[in-house]
Design brief:
single chain, 272 residues, alpha/beta, Rossmann fold, 2 domains, 5-stranded parallel β-sheet, 9 helices, SGNH_hydro_sf
Protein backbone atom coordinates (compact mmCIF):
# COMPACT_ATOMS: atom_id res chain seq x y z
CA UNK A 1 0.00 0.00 0.00
CA UNK A 2 2.75 2.37 0.94
CA UNK A 3 4.49 1.51 -2.28
CA UNK A 4 1.42 2.45 -4.36
CA UNK A 5 1.17 5.80 -2.62
CA UNK A 6 4.79 6.57 -3.41
CA UNK A 7 4.34 5.66 -7.09
CA UNK A 8 1.22 7.86 -7.33
CA UNK A 9 3.04 10.77 -5.79
CA UNK A 10 5.89 10.49 -8.32
CA UNK A 11 3.47 10.33 -11.24
CA UNK A 12 1.55 13.35 -9.97
CA UNK A 13 4.71 15.42 -9.54
CA UNK A 14 5.88 14.50 -13.05
CA UNK A 15 2.56 15.55 -14.50
CA UNK A 16 2.70 18.89 -12.71
CA UNK A 17 6.26 19.52 -13.94
CA UNK A 18 5.34 18.59 -17.53
CA UNK A 19 2.26 20.82 -17.53
CA UNK A 20 4.20 23.75 -16.05
CA UNK A 21 7.00 23.44 -18.57
CA UNK A 22 4.54 23.25 -21.47
CA UNK A 23 2.69 26.34 -20.20
CA UNK A 24 5.97 28.31 -19.90
CA UNK A 25 7.09 27.39 -23.43
CA UNK A 26 3.75 28.46 -24.87
CA UNK A 27 3.98 31.81 -23.03
CA UNK A 28 7.50 32.51 -24.33
CA UNK A 29 6.45 31.63 -27.90
CA UNK A 30 3.48 33.99 -27.75
CA UNK A 31 5.64 36.83 -26.39
CA UNK A 32 8.19 36.34 -29.19
CA UNK A 33 5.45 36.44 -31.79
CA UNK A 34 4.11 39.69 -30.32
CA UNK A 35 7.56 41.32 -30.32
CA UNK A 36 8.11 40.25 -33.93
CA UNK A 37 4.79 41.78 -34.95
CA UNK A 38 5.59 45.00 -33.09
CA UNK A 39 9.02 45.24 -34.72
CA UNK A 40 7.38 44.95 -38.09
CA UNK A 41 5.06 47.82 -37.26
CA UNK A 42 7.90 49.96 -36.00
CA UNK A 43 9.96 49.26 -39.09
CA UNK A 44 7.02 50.13 -41.31
CA UNK A 45 6.35 53.41 -39.48
CA UNK A 46 10.01 54.36 -39.62
CA UNK A 47 9.99 53.79 -43.35
CA UNK A 48 6.93 55.98 -43.81
CA UNK A 49 8.45 59.06 -42.14
CA UNK A 50 11.72 59.02 -44.06
CA UNK A 51 12.23 62.41 -45.78
CA UNK A 52 14.75 63.56 -48.38
CA UNK A 53 16.34 66.89 -47.36
CA UNK A 54 17.01 69.05 -50.42
CA UNK A 55 20.60 70.05 -51.01
CA UNK A 56 21.16 73.73 -50.38
CA UNK A 57 22.69 75.71 -53.22
CA UNK A 58 25.89 77.59 -52.30
CA UNK A 59 25.44 81.33 -51.84
CA UNK A 60 27.49 83.48 -54.17
CA UNK A 61 28.91 86.03 -51.76
CA UNK A 62 30.39 88.21 -54.48
CA UNK A 63 27.15 88.52 -56.46
CA UNK A 64 26.16 92.20 -56.41
CA UNK A 65 22.64 93.56 -56.61
CA UNK A 66 22.08 96.01 -59.45
CA UNK A 67 20.06 99.04 -58.30
CA UNK A 68 16.80 99.34 -60.25
CA UNK A 69 17.45 102.99 -61.05
CA UNK A 70 20.44 102.04 -63.24
CA UNK A 71 18.51 99.63 -65.46
CA UNK A 72 18.36 102.03 -68.45
CA UNK A 73 22.13 102.36 -68.54
CA UNK A 74 24.52 100.19 -70.56
CA UNK A 75 25.90 97.27 -68.60
CA UNK A 76 29.45 98.58 -68.55
CA UNK A 77 28.27 101.82 -66.97
CA UNK A 78 26.23 99.91 -64.39
CA UNK A 79 29.42 98.09 -63.42
CA UNK A 80 31.36 101.36 -63.22
CA UNK A 81 28.71 102.81 -60.92
CA UNK A 82 28.79 99.68 -58.74
CA UNK A 83 32.57 99.93 -58.44
CA UNK A 84 32.41 103.64 -57.64
CA UNK A 85 29.87 102.93 -54.92
CA UNK A 86 32.10 100.21 -53.44
CA UNK A 87 35.44 102.01 -53.67
CA UNK A 88 34.24 105.57 -53.02
CA UNK A 89 36.19 106.72 -56.09
CA UNK A 90 33.78 108.84 -58.19
CA UNK A 91 33.36 108.54 -61.95
CA UNK A 92 34.49 111.52 -64.01
CA UNK A 93 31.36 112.65 -65.85
CA UNK A 94 31.96 115.36 -68.48
CA UNK A 95 29.01 117.19 -70.04
CA UNK A 96 30.26 118.91 -73.19
CA UNK A 97 28.56 121.04 -75.82
CA UNK A 98 27.50 124.42 -77.15
CA UNK A 99 26.00 127.40 -75.39
CA UNK A 100 22.86 125.27 -74.93
CA UNK A 101 24.96 123.21 -72.51
CA UNK A 102 24.89 125.99 -70.00
CA UNK A 103 27.02 126.23 -66.88
CA UNK A 104 24.45 128.45 -65.20
CA UNK A 105 22.53 127.46 -62.06
CA UNK A 106 19.22 125.70 -62.80
CA UNK A 107 20.15 125.04 -66.43
CA UNK A 108 19.58 121.43 -67.50
CA UNK A 109 23.15 120.26 -66.59
CA UNK A 110 22.72 121.67 -63.08
CA UNK A 111 19.26 120.08 -62.68
CA UNK A 112 20.65 116.74 -63.83
CA UNK A 113 23.61 117.00 -61.45
CA UNK A 114 21.35 117.73 -58.47
CA UNK A 115 19.19 114.69 -59.16
CA UNK A 116 22.18 112.40 -59.65
CA UNK A 117 23.57 113.48 -56.31
CA UNK A 118 20.17 113.01 -54.65
CA UNK A 119 19.89 109.48 -56.07
CA UNK A 120 23.44 108.13 -56.12
CA UNK A 121 25.05 110.23 -53.41
CA UNK A 122 28.05 112.56 -53.45
CA UNK A 123 30.72 109.96 -54.23
CA UNK A 124 29.57 108.35 -57.48
CA UNK A 125 29.79 111.14 -60.06
CA UNK A 126 32.20 114.05 -60.29
CA UNK A 127 30.45 116.22 -62.90
CA UNK A 128 32.19 118.85 -65.02
CA UNK A 129 30.30 121.01 -67.53
CA UNK A 130 32.25 122.38 -70.51
CA UNK A 131 30.56 124.80 -72.91
CA UNK A 132 32.00 126.06 -76.20
CA UNK A 133 29.58 128.99 -76.35
CA UNK A 134 28.57 129.99 -79.86
CA UNK A 135 31.40 128.18 -81.69
CA UNK A 136 30.68 126.00 -84.69
CA UNK A 137 32.06 122.47 -84.95
CA UNK A 138 34.67 123.82 -87.40
CA UNK A 139 35.77 126.43 -84.85
CA UNK A 140 36.15 123.75 -82.20
CA UNK A 141 38.18 121.51 -84.50
CA UNK A 142 40.42 124.35 -85.62
CA UNK A 143 41.29 125.37 -82.05
CA UNK A 144 41.41 121.79 -80.67
CA UNK A 145 39.43 122.90 -77.64
CA UNK A 146 37.58 119.57 -77.60
CA UNK A 147 40.77 118.05 -76.20
CA UNK A 148 39.91 119.68 -72.87
CA UNK A 149 37.51 116.78 -72.44
CA UNK A 150 40.33 114.20 -72.61
CA UNK A 151 42.38 116.14 -70.08
CA UNK A 152 39.68 115.45 -67.50
CA UNK A 153 40.11 111.68 -68.01
CA UNK A 154 36.37 111.07 -68.26
CA UNK A 155 34.66 107.76 -67.54
CA UNK A 156 31.55 108.98 -69.32
CA UNK A 157 30.79 111.87 -71.67
CA UNK A 158 27.45 113.45 -72.51
CA UNK A 159 28.12 115.20 -75.82
CA UNK A 160 25.87 117.82 -77.41
CA UNK A 161 27.30 118.65 -80.86
CA UNK A 162 27.04 122.23 -82.03
CA UNK A 163 23.94 121.70 -84.14
CA UNK A 164 22.22 125.08 -83.87
CA UNK A 165 25.30 127.17 -84.63
CA UNK A 166 26.31 124.77 -87.44
CA UNK A 167 22.82 125.16 -88.88
CA UNK A 168 22.84 128.97 -88.82
CA UNK A 169 26.41 129.02 -90.18
CA UNK A 170 25.47 126.61 -92.98
CA UNK A 171 28.21 124.10 -92.15
CA UNK A 172 27.97 121.17 -94.57
CA UNK A 173 26.66 117.93 -93.04
CA UNK A 174 29.72 115.94 -94.08
CA UNK A 175 31.92 118.42 -92.18
CA UNK A 176 29.69 118.26 -89.09
CA UNK A 177 29.75 114.49 -89.03
CA UNK A 178 33.49 114.47 -89.73
CA UNK A 179 34.01 116.72 -86.70
CA UNK A 180 31.90 114.47 -84.50
CA UNK A 181 33.85 111.41 -85.62
CA UNK A 182 37.18 113.11 -84.98
CA UNK A 183 36.24 114.23 -81.47
CA UNK A 184 34.87 110.84 -80.43
CA UNK A 185 37.88 109.03 -81.91
CA UNK A 186 40.22 111.27 -79.90
CA UNK A 187 38.35 110.63 -76.65
CA UNK A 188 38.24 106.88 -77.13
CA UNK A 189 41.93 106.73 -78.07
CA UNK A 190 42.75 108.29 -74.71
CA UNK A 191 40.40 105.94 -72.84
CA UNK A 192 39.01 102.88 -74.61
CA UNK A 193 36.68 102.22 -71.67
CA UNK A 194 34.94 105.61 -71.83
CA UNK A 195 31.14 105.56 -72.20
CA UNK A 196 29.87 108.19 -74.65
CA UNK A 197 26.34 109.49 -75.00
CA UNK A 198 25.26 111.90 -77.71
CA UNK A 199 22.23 114.17 -77.66
CA UNK A 200 20.82 116.90 -79.90
CA UNK A 201 20.86 120.59 -79.17
CA UNK A 202 17.49 122.03 -78.20
CA UNK A 203 14.75 122.23 -80.85
CA UNK A 204 13.82 125.62 -82.27
CA UNK A 205 10.42 126.98 -83.23
CA UNK A 206 9.04 126.71 -86.75
CA UNK A 207 12.24 125.19 -88.15
CA UNK A 208 12.42 123.72 -91.66
CA UNK A 209 15.89 122.27 -92.36
CA UNK A 210 17.18 121.98 -88.81
CA UNK A 211 15.04 118.94 -87.74
CA UNK A 212 16.22 117.01 -90.82
CA UNK A 213 19.85 117.80 -90.03
CA UNK A 214 19.38 116.61 -86.46
CA UNK A 215 17.72 113.42 -87.71
CA UNK A 216 20.72 112.77 -89.96
CA UNK A 217 23.12 113.05 -87.03
CA UNK A 218 20.88 110.78 -84.95
CA UNK A 219 21.03 108.18 -87.72
CA UNK A 220 24.83 108.49 -87.80
CA UNK A 221 24.92 107.79 -84.06
CA UNK A 222 22.74 104.73 -84.47
CA UNK A 223 24.89 103.33 -87.30
CA UNK A 224 28.02 103.74 -85.18
CA UNK A 225 26.56 102.29 -81.96
CA UNK A 226 26.66 105.60 -80.13
CA UNK A 227 23.94 105.91 -77.50
CA UNK A 228 21.69 108.78 -78.63
CA UNK A 229 19.52 110.44 -75.99
CA UNK A 230 16.68 112.12 -77.86
CA UNK A 231 15.30 114.60 -75.36
CA UNK A 232 13.21 116.14 -78.16
CA UNK A 233 10.61 113.58 -77.16
CA UNK A 234 9.85 115.80 -74.15
CA UNK A 235 9.40 119.00 -76.16
CA UNK A 236 6.42 120.22 -78.22
CA UNK A 237 6.60 119.79 -81.99
CA UNK A 238 8.67 122.39 -83.83
CA UNK A 239 5.60 123.81 -85.58
CA UNK A 240 3.54 123.83 -82.39
CA UNK A 241 2.87 127.31 -81.04
CA UNK A 242 3.64 126.01 -77.55
CA UNK A 243 7.33 125.71 -78.49
CA UNK A 244 7.68 129.46 -77.91
CA UNK A 245 6.91 128.86 -74.22
CA UNK A 246 10.14 126.87 -73.85
CA UNK A 247 12.60 129.16 -75.65
CA UNK A 248 14.08 132.63 -75.30
CA UNK A 249 13.93 135.21 -78.10
CA UNK A 250 17.32 133.92 -79.26
CA UNK A 251 16.10 130.28 -79.47
CA UNK A 252 17.91 129.14 -76.32
CA UNK A 253 16.12 127.13 -73.64
CA UNK A 254 14.37 129.23 -71.02
CA UNK A 255 13.51 127.93 -67.54
CA UNK A 256 10.77 125.65 -68.89
CA UNK A 257 13.01 124.46 -71.70
CA UNK A 258 15.79 123.52 -69.30
CA UNK A 259 13.29 121.62 -67.16
CA UNK A 260 11.89 119.45 -69.97
CA UNK A 261 15.41 118.77 -71.22
CA UNK A 262 16.58 117.80 -67.73
CA UNK A 263 13.51 115.63 -67.08
CA UNK A 264 14.27 113.43 -70.06
CA UNK A 265 17.88 112.89 -68.98
CA UNK A 266 16.91 112.32 -65.34
CA UNK A 267 14.41 109.64 -66.38
CA UNK A 268 17.20 107.93 -68.31
CA UNK A 269 19.93 108.10 -65.69
CA UNK A 270 17.51 107.47 -62.79
CA UNK A 271 15.03 104.79 -63.91
CA UNK A 272 11.76 104.57 -61.97
Amino acid sequence: MKKLITIGTVVLCGGIIFAGNNHWNNKISAQSEKVTRNEGVIATKTKEVQTTIPKEEPIEEDKKETPTYTRNLPKELQEKISNATTTGKPLQFVIYGSEATSQEANAWPDLLRKQLVATYGDNVFNITVLSEGDKTSIDVMRTNTYEKVSELKPDLILFEPFMIKDNSSKIAMKNRIGSIEKMIATWTERNKEVTIFMQPSNPIADATYYPNQVAEIAEHAKENNIIYLNHWENWPESKDKKMEDYLTDTSEPNESGHKVWAEYLINYFVAK
